[in-house]
Every structure is written in structure tokens, then in C-alpha cells.
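As a warm-up, study this chain.
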Amino acid sequence: MRTIDFDTLHLSDKQTLLDVGCGRGRHTHAAYMFAQAHAIGIDLGFDDVKATRDGFTETLGAQDRYGALSGDALHLPFADASFDRLICSEVLEHIPDYYAAIAEMHRVVKIGGRIGISVPHRWTEQICWWLSRDYHNTTGGHIRIFKSHELIEDFETQGFRLYHKHLAHGLHTPYWWLRCALGVANDKPLLVRGYKKLLEIEIMKNPAILRPLSMLADRLCGKSIVLYFEKEQDA
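Now compare it with the structure written out below.
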């Protein structure tokens, strides 16, 4: 399930890309396959990093255009101006000092480099919080709901310029409202299981019949807001 659009990010061959908070590598793997780029994923979770690396080695064997390592978004283990592109998808809402993470992203991206950031969309996320305390009140869970204009200002203060934004995963929003209403840990209700199957079909097959519905849902109730910035200057 890809949240960041690589065409909008202007990802192309021979570029270096860092996926901050890569999880199990969905964007890291997709970036590698999208272009002949050098894709690196970093995450705090060792098991997630291992899954990202295994996703490469099991499919590609011994290659030199990818990497996966365990690390902290507040202390990225890379030199200044190391990357042409950077992704940070559904991560900042988990980090107490997210502004420090933005500063680190700015440090490791080249001038003129572009980044794709996504966080939960404010009002659809707020409904999840209202429906279920357990949705966000968990170890490592969401600790804030961003106002998009304030987050944009935080990035622009660091020396980034916003050039595009859009909403994504609108079909996923009602699913999470259902989960929150019926119990986040309860995936047994028939309606929940049926909706999950629909989402799996959308993600894996993207059938033509669902595309107009998905586009409409993105506009009306996107689960994520996606922001694209260009680095204009050094801090």
C-alpha cells in the first residue's frame, strides 16, 4: 500500500532515497522497483528492518542499490546532504520531538532535493480518537493530531517549500471508524471482515470498478494527508 506518489516526488534513476520509519519496507521496496534508484530504509524496530532487508534479498539476491538499518529519526546516521529524495510516511505522529526529526531530514537532504511526508488527516483521525481511546492510547501509538497548516509551517521554517499536497486512502477511513466503534482489537464482526477483504482487493488488484470510488473517497474522507516539499536552503 503506497501512500507517497513517486511521480509527484519526481523520483528518477540513479537518485538516492531514504525512507525514514520504513516499517516493513513498503515504500523502500516500491521506490527500488519504481526507478533505478538507491533505496535505503531506516527504522527503530529491528524486526521491521529485518523484514525490509529480507524483502530485498529474497527477491533480488545480492544487489548494491538498497539498504536497511536500525536507527533513530532524531539522529540519522548519515552525512549532511546525502540524499536526493526522502520519504517519511505515517511516522511523525508517533514522535514526541517531531520538530527535531524534521531538522534531521533537512540536514540529510541535498539542496533541491524533494521529500514526501504523510500523517493522518486531521478530522478523519479525530473521529477515530473520539470513538476509541484504545486506538491511540497504546505504547508507540499516535500521540498527536496534526493541523496540516501548522505542520507545513514547521517544514517551511526549516527551509523546505511545499509544492503539492493531496489526500490518500479514503476507502480505509470507514474501515477504521468501524474498528474503533466495534473495538480496535476486535476483527471478528462480519462487517469488519467483509470491509477488510474489500481493502485487500483494492491494494492487491486495484480493480477498475473500485478506482472511481477510491478517488471520490480520497477527496471526501482521506485517511492520510500527503505533503511534498523541496529543500530550498540550508538551515
